[in-house]
Write a structure and sequence with these properties.
The protein has helices spanning 2-17, 22-29, 50-56, 76-88, 140-147, 165-170, 177-180, 208-217, 253-265, 305-312, 326-329, 360-371, 390-394, 424-439, 459-463, 467-480; strands spanning 19-21, 43-45, 67-72, 93-96, 112-116, 123-126, 131-135, 152-153, 187-193, 199-203, 223-230, 232-233, 241-248, 273-280, 291-299, 318-324, 346-350, 353-355, 381-385, 409-418. It is of the alpha+beta class. The protein has 3 domains: 2-116, Uridine Diphospho-n-acetylenolpyruvylglucosamine Reductase, domain 3; 123-235 and 472-480, Uridine Diphospho-n-acetylenolpyruvylglucosamine Reductase, domain 3 (2-Layer Sandwich); 241-462, Vanillyl-alcohol Oxidase, Chain A, domain 3, CATH 3.40.462.
Length: 493
Amino acid sequence: MAVAILHVIAALLFGFLGTISLTACFQATILDSRGPPLSPGAQIYFPGSEGFANATSRWSAAVKPGFNAIVRVATEDDVRHTIRYANAHNRPFLAISGGHGTNAALNLVQAGIGIWMRGMNSVKIVDDGTAAIIEGGTDSGEVTAALWPQGKQTMTLGCDCPGFIAPVLGGGHGWLQGRYGLMADNLISARMVLANGTAITVSETDHADLFWAIRGAGHNFGIVVSVKYRIYDRTAGQDQWAAAGFTFTHDKLEKVFAKANEWLHRPTRPEELTHYPTFVNNPDIDPDRPVIVFWIFWQGSTIPAEYTTPMHALNPVSVMTSVTDLAGMNTHLGAAYGLPACQKGYSHLLYPISLMEWYVSNLRAVLEIFGSMPRAFSSSVMLLEAYATNRVSEIPNDTTAYPDRDGKLLLSPLMTYAANASLDETAVTISKKIRYTLLNGTGLPLNAYVNYAYGDESLQEIYGHEPWRLEKLRKLKKEFDPHGRFNFYAPIK
């Protein structure tokens, strides 16, 4: 009873004080004196404090894991001790970094402990400039910003504000994947804390099977506190990126994507080229249907005319052009710090599908679905991502747990709407209709990128249709997380 009263008093005090040093009071309140004190740099936040609000604010307001406490960790040992405390008290726990995950399983965390990683966000270049040690709370944009002034680049996301580590664990797509492969392909080793609170290093030589698993299914196996990650010197011509965004009315859809299919079907695709169309609502141009904004990106100072000339010939409504650097690339899609894609407070939903080419009649049907959506969803965007896949497809398919190296396109609606739980079901219904419209008649199985997966997909659709993949993952899950402590994102069962 005395311990329970202490907890109540502590919770009330934290509601007024907001934060408190874990060194001073964490042992006496949360750890019940059964574990060592955490580091001086760690903090704890309870509901009602500003720190708690900041830590639990998510990119999508429709995703609502529930926490009774947030631990802002500063060291690997902080993570270990917090997990051990949670296990001892049968509390769920969840690592938080960028807060961008939208998988429905996140909502299963209730009365949990959030392990906020943002206090661990350093990037240090090592190994004579061939690698970097990146801590688990670092944003993707922070990695690019740390490396670029040093003449370095590496695989990061097409958005600044998500955490860097979680996308690595699911594969990780981005601008440089044609040159360097997926984010997961650039992982040299990871320092991670397992479900029992022990910390290990995983690599090709240490716990090699687990290293295989965390490169594609890593959300299931532990909290990654740091990684050693490949980085690269920028060579001549790699400092600049050229961009051209063509806006077309809907009647140009068939011709635009017929041309894009020609690029996809070439036996040799340039690793410098990404094309990234979107469907967006712009009532000033067309009040009834979405318009097509078709971006062409090229790593270099000028996009070759063979890609831009055919688009100009289709008489776009407008053309936007720029030359920027890697950090500036994310501004074109509103995905840099401070721009709409990084803003919190709205509800967002993703519903991905991988395809081999642009199935034009299906795209036409999806555009019509977008045009008929209720006004509440008018800020939504259809993402049609066509990154270069040269290096991705060169890596043998069994090298990592990432299951979809043959896929050429990543498509998903990005449903965006005011935070309103009454709209969530409608958003899911529309998204599901879009997904199966895109899949219709292709003859392909559904492959859903785990980092975008909604949560109603089968394990085969997320982790691969070859039976051996899921067998191996289930065996490793049983070995490293037998009690399902990491079952809050696309869980393997």
